[in-house]
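If you are new to this repository, start here. Below is one unmodified record pulled from the training split, so you can see the exact layout before writing a loader.
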Amino acid sequence: MKGIPPHSNEAEIHVLGGVLIDNAIIADMGVTLEATDFYSTRHQVIWKGIEAVRVDNQEANVLTVWEWAQANRYDIRGEYLTELVDTVPGVRWVPSHARIVRDKARLRRAAALASNVHEDVMAGVVEAAAPYIEAFADDVRKLAQDTACNLFNRTPLSDMVADEFEALEERYKNPVDVSGYSTGYKDLDEVTLGIEQGEAWIIAARPNIGKSTLGMNICAHLARAGKASAFFSTE
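And here is the target side for that same chain:
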C-alpha cells in the first residue's frame, strides 16, 4: 500500500497509558482490542504485556509490564512506560480512544484486503473470477461482521445495567401481564413479560426434549397474531 496506513498514535498512547493507570477501564472500553489493532510495533508489544500480566492475575502497571518485557526479551524501556502514564490526564477518555484505535485497525485491514486483490489480479494469478470474488466477499463479510459486533459492544456495561434497572423499575410501577409480544404460553409470559424488541432468547436443554417444537410453536403463535416470524433449522 502506498502512503501511511491509517492510525492514531495519540489514541494508542492514551489507551495504553490509561489502562496502565487503571486496569478496570478495560471493562468499560466498549470494544475488545487485540495487539494487532495497534499500528506501532512497540505498542503491540506493550498490549501483549498487559494481556499476559493480567492472565497471570496480576495488575498490569509500569513495573509488571516492564518485567514481562524483560523476561521475554522485548526492548521496552521503563522510561517509555512511565511516559505513557504521565502523558494521560486520566482514564475518562480511554473508551473513545479505544474505539479510534479499533476503527483505524479495521480500515487498515480493509485496505490490505483490497490491495491483495489488486496485486493478484494484476499479476495474473487469478484463474477464475467467480470463486476468487466469492472468497474476497467472504473476507469482507467477516470484517464487516467483526466491526458490527464491536459496534454492539461499545455500550459500557454500567450503562446496560442502568438501563435494565430503569426497565425493572418501570415494570414495578406499571405492572402488566405482557409488555412485549406474547409467546402463546401463559406461564412463560408471566416470567418474561413476553418477547421484547431487540432481545435474543436462548432455549437450552438436553437433546430430544422439545426445544425445536417450542421455538416453532412460538413462531406460529406470533404469525397467527399478525407478527412477522421465521424459523431456521439445521436439522
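Two things worth knowing about this chain: The mean pLDDT is 87. The two ends are 46 Å apart (CA to CA).
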